[in-house]
Give the backbone structure.
Amino acid sequence: MNVVLTPDGPLDPSATLSRYRIWGEDPVNRLSGDVFRRVARWKDRLVPYEVRWQGSVDDPKLLVRVVGARTSAATDAVLSEVRQLFGLDFDLPGFYRLAKADPALAGLIEPLYGLRPTLSPTAIEMLVGAITAQQLNLAFAFTLRARLVKRYGECVCIGGDDVYTFPEPAVLARVRVASLRGMQFSTAKAVAIRGVAQAMLDGGIDPAAFVTAGNAEIIASLTALRGIGRWTADWYMARCLGRGDVCPAGDLAVRKAFHHYYGRGRAFSEDGIRRRAAAWGAYQTLAVHYLLAGMRLSKPTAGGGT
């Protein structure tokens, strides 16, 4: 089944999806030239799909091909993922209007025009990815994540590419700590990954309830788990739920970006960053995304962020 999506506002698909290749291999999100491939889960089925794009940044079209979908519900599940992965629900025109009043952000609009944050379609994928990236450069974090996916995910061939599903919580909850240690995960990360997976099975983490929960409630629920701190909870809200009013001020790369663009010779505290970001209101996630991307303009493989 083929479907065309027309974004509301500008979109640079290649720049938006670049995070799936600049730090290394991502077996779950395959980006090959001008085609993106992934496998969605719908009920107990795997639904492979691919996305191509055409048109200009100001008038883009996403061409979605769903492989083997026999129901409209399965296609709808894929389209929901595509909207998340391409950040289509972010108000980019509104952000640009706000950014023009901020000297740092205003200077990033032109070189990053059409860039949108990608969202993780699943909670387990986001949380395990964030745990993996704690206190590591992103290149090595991507290496660890790829090992985990290839060992415990399911492989589907789409258009000649081997694309893997991210391992389900039921699978990761059973993985031995020693097996993860053998992949070079630290003991702390291995225990945290198993704990998150188990919490999703027994209801300690309820992604469906998080959709309507307040930020404070989500932070409290996630940080109650071993290995999950405020940094991870913030990124979960920003990059899984797509909430605009979030600033992961505890992230080292975010702190470096604020120091670079706004420091004027002084370092920001975590509380200071949150106060500064609060002025952006519902556009905090977009502002942080642009500041981090701006830091990478001269250093494409710099670590940090998620």
